[in-house]
Design goal:
Distance between the termini: 41 Å
Strand content: 15-25%
Number of helices: 8
Strand order of the largest sheet: 2-1-3-4-5
Bound molecules: calcium ion
CATH topology of the largest domain: Rossmann fold
Number of strands: 12
C-alpha cells in the first residue's frame, strides 16, 4: 500500500482525511505538527505523497514543504490551503509543491487529486524509456526525471517535470490549457484551468532567463501555451 503523509493539526479534519485515504486503499501516516511531519518523513523514506496543511502551530506548511524538498525527496506534495488564502499569494509561497486543495474539500475531491498525482508519479516511472529529450539548451532525462539547462541541473517538482516533458515532446505545437491539464494531471481530473497557469508561471521562473519575456514557454493568447524554441 502506498504511504501518504497527512499533516494537519486539527484532529477532526485529520481523521476525516485519514479515513477517506484508507477507504481508497492508501496507508496514511499522521502528523499533527510540522516537526512531527519531518520526523515521519525521515523515518519513512517510502512515503509517496504528502498532504500538508498550511496553518500549523509550529512551522508552517510551506516551510515543511521546503524542508522536504531540501532533503532531496521527490514525493508528491499537495498543500491544503484555506479559502481565505488568495491563490496568487499561495502560489508565490508554494515552490516545491505539486498541487493544492482548498478547504473545505469533499472526500471525493481530495481522493481525485491524490489518485491523479499518484498515478502520474507511477505511470511516468513505468513507461519512461531511456530516451533523453533535447531542445535548445535543455536536456530532459526521463530515467532520472531530471532537467538540465546549459549543463546545470534545475530543481523541478513532479508537475513541473511533467510539464517540461509535455512541452519538449511537442515542440512548436500550440496546446490549450484543457489539453495541458488532461495530459499532466490526468483526463479525469476536473481541476481548474488556473492550476495550469499557476504551474507554468512557476516553471518559467526556473527555466526562463527573463520570466516576464518568456523565450521558451510562450503564451498563445486566449488559448494556451507553446514550446517556442
Ligand atoms: Ca491548520
Amino acid at each position: 500500500m502506498k504511504k501518504i503523509l497527512v499533516m494537519e493539526d486539527e484532529s477532526n479534519i485529520r481523521s476525516f482525511v485519514v479515513i477517506n485515504l484508507r477507504r481508497s486503499g492508501y496507508e496514511p501516516i499522521e502528523a499533527a505538527t510540522g516537526t512531527e511531519a519531518l520526523e515521519k518523513v525521515k523515518a519513512n523514506p517510502d512515503i509517496c505523497l504528502a498532504l500538508l496543511d498550511v496553518m500549523l502551530p509550529d512551522i508552517d506548511g510551506f516551510e515543511v514543504c521546503r524542508r522536504i524538498r531540501a532533503s532531496g525527496s521527490k514525493m508528491g506534495i499537495i498543500m491544503l490551503t484555506a479559502k481565505s488564502q488568495e491563490i496568487d499569494k499561495v502560489t508565490g509561497l508554494m515552490t516545491g509543491a505539486d498541487d493544492y486543495v482548498t478547504k473545505p474539500f469533499s472526500p471525493a475531491e481530495l481522493t481525485a487529486r491524490v489518485d491523479a498525482l499518484v498515478r502520474r508519479l507511477g505511470t511516468d516511472e513505468e513507461d519512461s524509456g531511456n530516451n533523453e529529450l533535447v531542445s535548445g539548451p535543455f536536456v530532459l532525462n526521463p530515467r532520472n526525471r531530471t532537467l538540465e539547462k546549459d549543463g546545470q541541473r534545475l530543481k523541478l517538482t513532479q508537475i513541473e517535470y511533467l510539464l517540461m516533458k509535455l512541452f519538449m515532446e511537442n515542440p512548436g505545437k500550440a496546446m490549450s490549457r484543457e489539453d495541458i491539464l488532461a495530459a499532466v494531471w490526468g483526463g479525469d481530473f476536473s481541476g481548474e484551468l488556473k492550476t495550469v497557469d499557476v504551474n507554468i508561471r512557476r516553471l518559467r521562473i526556473k527555466i526562463e532567463s527573463d520570466p516576464t519575456e518568456p523565450e521558451y514557454i510562450t503564451t498563445v493568447w486566449g488559448y494556451g501555451y507553446k514550446w517556442g524554441y
